[in-house]
Design a protein that fits this description.
By secondary structure, the protein is of the alpha/beta class. Among the domains are: 1-30, no CATH class; 104-242, 3-Layer(aba) Sandwich (Uracil-DNA Glycosylase, subunit E). Helix content is 39%, strand content 10%. The protein is built from nine helices and seven strands; from the N terminus they run E-H-E-E-H-E-H-H-E-H-H-E-H-E-H-H. A four-stranded parallel beta sheet has the order 5-4-6-7, with helices on both faces. Strands 1-2-3 form a three-stranded mixed beta sheet. It is globular, with a radius of gyration of 41 Å. The termini are far apart. Residues 103-228 form the Uracil-DNA glycosylase-like domain.
Length: 244
């Protein structure tokens, strides 16, 4: 005969009553009045065997470890103020003078990959530096027409083919004539190459033109700013002489 308290204690510890014999009888606790039900001996049935607590803990640890080491695809966070366009554009429209009056046209050879991803010409720090350069020569960006010679350069190719440059000559010529830019500032040493001089002279006609390094290169090599400033002083003088 066993005390019910003793039996419940073993059940609370997770031992279960399975070690008892089928004929074991449970006695009611002392000082408890016997009811008609308690007065009758109770036969304990065999309980199903459950896994012990240490086994459950080990299984959980193994599951957690498997989840922690599982490969989870990650993604780079997108800047909150700059959301790239889905896909990559194969052509970026020029940025006309916001004031409606063009005092200078700024021409790059083709949009870099970053501009094509964000769908904006002179995007990011390079664009900020360009606006600062314009301020240095006395020009507000609102009076500047910004564009690129080749607008459909292949992604990942910083230099369009000679054929693509030649094919775009007519389009950029019509664009400059349409915005009535009195002077042109070319960005990038690609315009300095001898094979492009005739093309540039044909494009500009009687308009004065100037060539400096692209702002993106000046960000990487700030020591080049001094030589570019010499050219910018010539541009500033030409704009003042023209009444801009």
């Amino acid at each position: 005969m066993l005390s019910a308290r003793y039996l419940h204690l073993h059940e609370a510890l997770g031992l279960g009553p399975m070690w008892l014999k089928r004929g074991a009888v449970v006695l009611p606790p002392k000082n408890t009045p016997a009811t008609s039900v308690q007065a009758r001996p109770q036969t304990v049935r065999s309980a199903p065997i459950r896994p012990s607590q240490p086994h459950n803990v080990q299984a959980r640890l193994e599951t957690m470890k498997a989840l922690e080491t599982a490969a989870v695809p990650t993604r780079k966070p997108v800047p909150e103020t700059e959301t790239p366009l889905p896909g990559v554009s194969d052509g970026i429209a020029p940025v006309p003078a916001a004031s409606g009056i063009t005092k200078l046209a700024v021409v790059s050879l083709c949009p870099p990959t970053e501009d094509m991803v964000y769908g904006q010409l002179f995007h990011g720090k390079a664009g900020v530096l360009l606006d600062n350069i314009l301020k240095a020569v006395g020009l507000d960006a609102a009076y500047v027409h910004k564009t690129s010679w080749v607008k459909t350069a292949a992604v990942g190719n910083p230099m369009p083919s000679e054929q693509a440059i030649a094919n775009a000559l007519g389009q950029i010529a019509r664009e400059l004539d349409g915005c009535r830019a009195p002077a042109v500032l070319f960005l990038g040493q690609a315009f300095v190459q001898p094979e492009r001089q005739t093309m540039i002279e044909t494009l500009c006609g009687s308009r004065p033109f100037f060539i400096i390094d692209h702002p993106a290169r000046l960000l990487r090599q700030p020591e080049l700013k001094a030589r570019n400033w010499q050219v910018l002083k010539q541009l500033k003088h030409a704009l003042q002489a023209g009444g801009s």
